[in-house]
Design a protein that fits this description.
globular, 6-stranded mixed sheet, alpha/beta, single chain, about 5% strand, about 550 residues
């Protein structure tokens, strides 16, 4: 018997959905190692900040690291204080950020469309987008930045609709928190939305005393960390403007330069299968639904303008555009409600096909046991249970209900989330984690008495997992090119050895004979001919998928 879901659009049911999502999000987040390089870098900087209690000067492996403002590190240290210095503590507040985003999306949909069904479906669609799940599983600034951006826009929209002064000040506070998370880049998302809204809705730019006070508050709070640092070292002013702002926009900064069209295929992949109806005979129906709908135009134009701006920038990463997907979720939800049941029917079949393909992929890997991935018995059983739940929901709900489409998308996304979280602990290579290697070193060595040499690569996660002395052997890889211009002394040289220095070779020759010494060499970057002699100095070696480990017991 089919069940028509016509009334399950209230906030009460949405809270139930969020509670389930939170359980899924926190499940297993401490069971797999830190991913190199980004996640390990943020986790280690936060660890060093937590241990040293220096909350002004972020450090990575003992060297000042001013690439990002400190708010992400602050939040992570709170996780360490509550849960200990571990992966769960590092990732916990990312899950809180996703939950807050889901609450804000519901609120934004209400402010724009005044429709609880659109609000309910928007949250489900947002959770179904893969990039959202990626941001919850990898410690970076992006999930927090998106939360502050979405919160700021929600407060601005609330103030615009109802003139509540409290939300105006909260808007400026959230903008300031965004500045302390990733700098001025957040203003692109916020200003694009506000300017587009003003133009479409013919709203004036009226500045009051409260705006002036809010701006001052935002400037003082958002610029506090920058002001304090620059007062102590004026050279940081040029560093922030040139190295961290201009170079990321116009130059090949940190080897992240990508072509103009980089985000186009990503958008197509990340929004699949939601765009399928626009390639069929339903285009005209979508255009009719879109016509005269200022709210939908606001979301679409804001998204397109933001994507164009980020496409112009030289440096590009997938998570840079995370803050546009809440707008796409609202837009898709609104069009899904207005375009009739046929489109929902098509999307239902698309998600059913996707979950079938996903399960067959997991099952095939379980049977074939390829080298690149390990599937445990528990993972297969868990995936089967999720697919069974999906199947039950599919046959229980009305085929032509937009809410059914959103629920199926959410269950599919939840299946992927649960399965991948179960897979990650047994597949450290897939996420470029050193946890397995360092675990072996801890078992073989004597921890504080051990020395770990890492050739031509910066492994940020090593001190997270061991108290052994780590020495990075700097050669040609960009990760080892550390910025030491702000160091107060030369102590950093003890743990960063320049391979162009002839004295380094002699030091290596001496230390390689010592017991409890370990040398890690990436297979992508083998030892040059003049260092091959080191292999003979170590009594044992072990091969990993991406690394060679040479060691003395």
């Amino acid at each position: 018997m089919k069940i028509l879901l016509t009334k399950i659009t209230t906030f009460r049911f949405y809270i139930v959905f969020i509670a389930i999502v939170f359980i899924l999000l926190i499940n297993g987040i401490g069971n797999y190692g830190l991913a190199e390089t980004s996640e390990a870098r943020y986790a280690e900087i936060s660890r060093e900040m937590f241990i040293s209690s220096d909350y002004l000067n972020p450090k990575l492996l003992g060297i000042f690291h001013y690439h990002k403002p400190p708010l992400t590190y602050y939040i992570t240290t709170v996780g360490y204080r509550i849960f200990g210095i571990n992966e769960f503590g590092a990732r916990f507040f990312l899950q809180i950020a996703i939950v807050i985003q889901l609450l804000l999306i519901y609120g934004m949909a209400q402010l724009l469309f005044h429709n609880k069904k659109i609000a309910f479906i928007s949250g489900l669609i947002y959770f179904s987008i893969p990039i959202v799940l990626i941001s919850s599983r990898n410690l970076t600034t992006d999930a927090y930045l998106t939360t502050f951006i979405l919160g700021a826009i929600y407060c601005w929209q609330n103030y615009t609709n109802y003139k509540r002064i409290f939300y105006l000040y909260l808007f400026y506070i959230l903008v300031a928190l965004g500045l302390l998370t990733k700098g001025p880049v957040e203003l692109i998302f916020i200003f694009t939305y506000i300017i587009t809204y003003k133009i479409l809705f013919r709203a004036g730019f009226k500045i009051t005393l409260h705006h002036a006070l809010g701006f001052i508050l935002c400037l003082l709070l958002g610029g506090s960390w920058y002001f304090i640092l620059i007062m102590d070292n004026s050279g940081l002013w040029n560093y922030f403007l040139e190295k961290q702002l201009y170079s990321r926009v116009a130059l090949d900064s940190f080897n992240r330069s990508k072509p103009f069209w980089f985000f186009i295929p990503l958008i197509i992949i990340l929004l699949f299968p939601w765009w399928i109806p626009i390639i069929g005979k339903y285009v005209k129906r979508l255009l009719i639904a879109f016509k005269g709908d200022k709210e939908s135009k606001l979301l679409l134009i804001s998204t397109l303008c933001t994507l164009i701006v980020f496409s112009i920038f030289s440096t590009k990463l997938i998570l840079y555009i995370l803050p546009v997907f809440w707008m796409m979720s609202l837009l898709i939800s609104a069009l899904l409600i207005k375009t009739g049941n046929k489109i929902s029917f098509i999307l239902n079949h698309a998600f059913s096909f996707m979950i079938l393909v996903f399960f067959m992929g997991v099952f095939t890997c379980y049977i074939m046991k390829p080298e690149f991935i390990k599937i445990a018995n528990g993972t297969l059983i868990l995936t089967f249970i999720c697919v069974s739940i999906y199947t039950g929901i599919y046959f229980a709900l009305d085929n032509y209900s937009p809410i059914k489409t959103a629920i199926l998308a959410t269950v599919f996304s939840g299946t992927v989330l649960v399965t991948t979280t179960s897979i990650l602990p047994d597949n450290s290579v897939a996420i470029n984690s050193t946890k397995e290697i360092i675990g072996f070193i801890n078992a073989e060595g004597h921890n504080q008495e051990s020395t770990i040499l890492v050739y031509d690569y910066l492994l940020s996660s090593v001190p997270f997992y061991t108290e052994a002395n780590q020495i990075t052997l700097k050669s040609t890889h960009n990760t080892t090119d550390r910025e030491v211009l702000f160091q107060h002394d030369n102590l950093w040289r003890n743990n960063l050895w320049d391979m162009k220095d002839d004295q380094t070779i002699y030091r290596l020759d001496s230390i390689s004979y010592k017991p409890h010494t370990f040398l890690l060499v990436r297979k992508k970057s083998p030892l040059p001919n003049n260092l091959n002699f080191l292999k003979n100095h170590f009594k044992a070696q072990l091969e990993y998928t991406k690394w060679w480990l040479y060691y003395n017991k």
